[in-house]
Write a structure and sequence with these properties.
This protein is an alpha/beta fold. The chain is 44% helix and 15% strand. Strands 1-2-3-4-5-6-7-8 form an eight-stranded parallel β-barrel, surrounded by six helices. The protein binds 1,3-dihydroxyacetonephosphate (13P). The site of 1,3-dihydroxyacetonephosphate (13P) has 14 residues, from strand 8.
């Protein structure tokens, strides 16, 4: 049985003080989530990771938004998986569409980053999704299959079970144009089937999240779908009150 997972991606928002304030305001809700067997995660900026980890409830998974694939060296501006581990970070988002668009993040590069995280026993949260044009041209599955093959094909069964996948259609991110529950379920089901073909006997345990304009008033509908195990949320994860509302929506 896959546990529900709600992850907030803060993107380039919040100072360390604001992250600490969020951590203290969410204590009660985190306990409630634990009682309801709902897993929680937050991905702050690098700048806030240490303060957030130290102040957040222990049952909140803390993710970076990016990681480098080497352990150390001459890579200006980068942070390694070993460094994240040294401050008790649990994992990292990999291949978010904003990084694919603005930072030349390719699926092949993502595979190296996922490898680096697994080496440190950290959790990769690998994002896939098609652009609006690709969606309109009916290429969703083709695009996602390529992202899955290039990003994940080399992993073994036990490694694959530790990887979380997020389906985030680019056209739904920050736009208020949600994918319907039916689209989310169809694509997440497709992802599970393709993971199973690539890495047999792994996919039943892999958690697949939907992301893109998820809000307190629509999250429950996605989670009712058989193959949607959680949500990756941007804007609506920024205030403790709306994060808490989503936790409650998931518990019903
Ligand atoms: P929004 O929830 O703001 O649409 O962002 C989704 C997202 O990109 C999460 O990674």
């Amino acid at each position: 049985m896959r546990r529900k997972l709600l992850v907030g991606n803060w993107k380039m928002n919040k100072t360390p003080d604001e992250a600490i304030a969020f951590a203290s305001e969410i204590q009660k809700e985190a306990k409630f989530a634990a009682d309801q067997k709902i897993d929680l995660g937050i991905a702050p900026t690098f700048l806030c990771l240490n303060d957030f980890r130290k102040n957040a409830p222990n049952n909140i998974l803390v993710f970076a938004q990016n990681v480098h694939y080497e352990d150390h060296g001459a890579f200006t501006g980068e942070v390694s998986a070993a460094m994240l581990k040294s401050i008790r970070i649990d994992g990292s988002i990999i291949g978010h569409s904003e990084r694919r668009t603005y930072d030349n993040e390719t699926s092949k590069k993502c595979a190296k980053k996922i490898r680096a995280l697994l080496k440190e026993n950290l959790i990769p949260l690998y994002c896939v999704g098609e652009t609006e044009q690709e969606f309109n041209e009916g290429k969703t599955k083709e695009v996602i299959l390529k992202q899955l093959k290039e990003g994940l094909e080399d992993f073994k069964k036990e490694e694959m079970k530790k990887i979380i996948i997020a389906y985030e259609p680019v056209w739904s991110i920050g736009t208020g144009k949600n994918a319907s529950e039916e689209i989310a379920e169809n694509v997440c089901k497709f992802i599970r089937e393709e993971v199973e073909k690539m890495i047999p006997e792994s996919s039943e345990e892999v958690r697949i999240l939907y992301g893109g304009s998820v809000k307190p008033n629509n999250i429950a509908g996605y989670l009712k779908q058989e193959n949607v195990d959680g949500a990756l949320v941007g804007g609506a994860s920024l205030t403790p009150s709306s994060f808490a509302e989503m936790i409650h929506a998931l518990s019903e």
